[in-house]
Automatic annotation (TrEMBL):
GO terms for molecular function: ATP binding. Residues 5-120 form the Response regulatory domain. The modification 4-aspartylphosphate is found at D55. Keywords: ATP-binding, Coiled coil, Kinase, Nucleotide-binding, Phosphoprotein, Transferase, Two-component regulatory system. Residues 174-392 form the Histidine kinase domain. It is an enzyme of class 2 (transferase). It catalyses: ATP + protein L-histidine = ADP + protein N-phospho-L-histidine. Pfam families: HATPase_c, HisKA, Response_reg. Its EC number is 2.7.13.3. Residues 118-160 form a coiled coil. This is histidine kinase. The keyword Heme does not apply.
Amino acid sequence: MYPLRILITEDDHVSALLLKKALERNNHQIIGISDSGEKALEILEKNQADLVMMDINLSGELDGIKTTEIINEKYDIPVVYLSASSDSETLTKVVGTNPSAYVIKPFNIRELNMVIELAIFKDRKEKELQKLNNELEEKVRQRTKDLHEANKELTRALEKEREIGELKSRIVLNVSHGFKTPLTSILSSAQLLQVYADKDHPFKAKIAKHANKIESSVRSLNGLLTSVLFFGKADANKIDYNPKKMYLSSFFQEIVDVVKAGAENDVKIVLKTEKIPRSMVTDVDLMYQVFENLLSNAVKYSKDGQVVDFNVWSEGGYIQAKIKDSGIGIPKAEQDQLFDRFFRAKNVGIIEGSGLGLSIVKKCVEVLKGDISFVSDAGKGTTFHVKVPINRE
């Protein structure tokens, strides 16, 4: 063990000299010998010590325990107690001051050296631990400060994002509504052209052809704007559930009739309804969006002469429907993107579409508290399965 600067505090002069001799034999430096707590504190005030050997019973007003408490508070020096007593009361008092070690008198040199070495080791480890604790506390304080700043920055960013989102929604809604009026006028004019084309006119065929093109384009654009408006409301969390009584058989037949009327290819739709209630209370507009979009897609992506099966039934408290086509299908690698906005599979070719229909379907099904799933193979067709609760909670 390396040499230490040691203060001996012992009121028995003979014991103090014997202890001094034993310590010096191990190359330790004795910076002083005191017989009272007061004198020990005076010596420490003027001299630096590595260790204090402290007798418990001292002359003067300060005993060894009170003196050790002051040393712990002012100097943070390891203290080794010296005592001829080892009774439980004395040990209890000693433990309360967290001593570095305890030696019973009379002591032998070997025991003394071991106790001193233990005291120094304990003190060093406690100081290292305290240093680590201080560093950890500082890191925690710094991390807490950084986290607080990051939270403030995140809050500002979220607030900015919310403001941008609201602005985007307002722009989408305003622009979309702004398009609605001129589109209505264009559509009316196209329909008037068709009326005039029914009369004798040298350009009757051309007028009818271009009027049909105008009307078709306007209806497509109008549908796109309706989709954009829908997502404007969805992003602003303004899609409300407005339940009304609806008659199921007539509802599904109406969807089939509408899709057939707008179809541009020769595809047969086979509607089968079985075991469905006569009526139910739900949001008719959301239901229409779901089934009109799914059935329109099934027809649009099928070839002339193919059949689309539209089966509807009730089971387990749900209205359930399967829409099955034998059209182009969806490539496996792209199926996880099917309900994403503006997504269109690579195999759609020149078939027109906005890529919004199925994302609208998904959102509507969520608002209806229902479920939608599908199976598909490229070139073999797609089957959608929809479940909507008959009694929505």
